[in-house]
Amino acid sequence: FPQHNELLLLLRHHLCPLLHKSLSERPVFPLTLRSTRVVFLLLKQFSNELPTEAEVFLMLLIKVISGEHDTENGSSHSRPGWMRVIALEIIRGLCTDAELIRGIWQRYDAQPNGSKVFGSLVTALNRLASEKPSLLGVGTQVMGLGVAPSYNAEGASGYGMESVAGMVANAASATVSGVVGMMGTEAGLSVVGSSMKLQCIDQLDKADAPGIPESYIYLLAIQCLVSLVEGFASLVLPLYNTITIVRPRAAGEAIVHAPPALDLPTLPEGDHGTVQLRIVHDMLESGWPALLAALSFYIATNISDELFADVLGAMQGMINVLGVLRLTTPRDA
């Protein structure tokens, strides 16, 4: 397809409008399921060739996971919960592709008048995290870190930057026995108890939506956040090690301290690694408040040992990447 303009025109002028119309109308499970599967393929394979169409589909998916009502054709109606789950499964698949996520930032967020696709995504994931705190077992007893939760009338997280920083600091200073005790309680969110045997988007034989665990959507959100951070770390940390590699210290030589953070302006212009580092730097400089707030919220909820380790590892990876890129304010937060 990418080598044939005629086939790309078919995608742009016939398939994409059909898919958009299908996803904008009142959802029917079999049709919506198949339409979103095709959208996923388009986003994975043709984002470069169809930037405008990809932007429309990405913003539509983000709108769905945000829980916004559909206002197409002048009428407003809420989407069913299964459509939100399908959209998040699509987003999860996209978040595991770090190169694709960086490309999304370059094409949209990095442009002066471009859509803030990446920014909207992390904001939506952050809002979703604290949508139903009681479902995840959030409270002063469960949080166990000396930070009481605060929520506004809509149920959104009331964490300011000071409270987020305090939560992380308290988590870091918590005793080992306290953390183990917190992890030992029955989890409100776990891979075993919250996931589906077969993800919703693969249930092509169903005429109606299957039963979906209520907490499944929050499991998907955690997996999206962890994948995003892992994508940053998998690029930045190996490049940092390559740039700052130091030979072993010989006998009698002075102690070599840890290498400093990268100074991006001094790196070679036009080098592929430098370009990618600057992209991640800009992405984190823009998106760190939402990422930190969401991860801090989840780490203070009643999640399973496995998910706790995943979220804690993501926070550690994010701190390392922020430090390497000399983003001191978010690193210290």
From TrEMBL:
<dbReference type="GO" id="GO:0005794">
    <property type="term" value="C:Golgi apparatus"/>
</dbReference>
<feature type="domain" description="Mon2/Sec7/BIG1-like HUS">
    <location>
        <begin position="1"/>
        <end position="117"/>
    </location>
</feature>
<dbReference type="Pfam" id="PF12783">
    <property type="entry name" value="Sec7-like_HUS"/>
</dbReference>
<dbReference type="InterPro" id="IPR032691">
    <property type="entry name" value="Mon2/Sec7/BIG1-like_HUS"/>
</dbReference>
<protein>
    <recommendedName>
        <fullName>Mon2/Sec7/BIG1-like HUS domain-containing protein</fullName>
    </recommendedName>
</protein>
